[in-house]
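Tutorial, part two.
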Amino acid sequence: MSLSWPWALLALLVIPLVFAQLWLSRRRRRRSVVRVTSLALVQTAVPGRSRWRRRLPVVLLTLGFAVLAVGAARPQATVPVPSSSATIMLALDVSGSMCSTDVKPNRITAAEQATSAFIKSQTGGPRIGLVAFAGTAAVLVPPMADARQQLSAIGGLTTSFGTAIGEGILTSLDAIAQVDPAVAPTGANVTRRAGAGYANDVIVVLTDGSNNRGIDPQTAAKDAAARGVRVFTIGYGTDNPAPLACSSDQFGGFSGGSFGGGGFGGGRGGIGGNPFDADFNALMRISKTTGGSFYRAQDADQLSRALAKLPAAFTIVRRPIDLASWFAVGGGLLVAAAVGLSLWWNRSRRAPVPAPGTAPGTAAN
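Running the prediction step on this input gives:
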């Protein structure tokens, strides 16, 4: 907890002044004591009070003044809160290897189900956009809060040839730049200041293969890092080869063949990587370069858990919350309780004290 106006704590000096006033009042009362000859008369005129009844109002009043003084200093607490201004770009690999059946019923179907569940869980939260990449990349849905369009686009995914991870990152950056003026589009000369914070925008790359098309993913990652956009990567699929099996509407050239062209290629990393074997080291480097995190998902359950962890990493921000009003209410209640108890317990002491020599219950003439 921090204080916006720490000098206001000088109000705590009121507390010793209160105690000084109480001490002076008690001293004056002792000087003005009236001597009486009957102890029964004193007990009748002044009802006895226990020690805690005498001290409780003073304690409550002291606490009340202390709480009010702290409230006057404007205390603030930094708490985690969900950010509704965040943008999440989901870059999904739709290469032919996503038809592999090592994840039941196949990789792309399981990815569709997990991604759909993630989008539904974020309703009312950050804006979500979708990018699909195979031989090249394209925006399916720009960043928005309309889950219906996102779910409809995911339900219509089809696979094609190639794995252009770098293109998927750059395409996602341009989509973010369309809705966030603080993020420069690709191609712009950007220099990030030392110590600058991250943008509210992130990219999540889900891939089961290695880059074999387009720009090098590490180059794209440096572009994202220069804009403060973190890239979270998910290495998808098992290490066991499995037959390809996609339904007729999941295979055959995404968006009318816009991702077509070329075979799978061979080798590992860069151009000609293996589309059936995710390059985890390359994905880790992408995340490390941008300040994101890498996740491994070998089946549908692990993919769902990886996606579920993401919001806590980039949609929760820490913001200061002013607590002055709470301290004001608490201090006011303590002071009111002290005054109320003092008046309640002293109400019977207001009765006139009989003059010396007068019988109890008889008024002096």
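The longest helix spans residues 51-72. In part three we will examine how such features are distributed along the chain.
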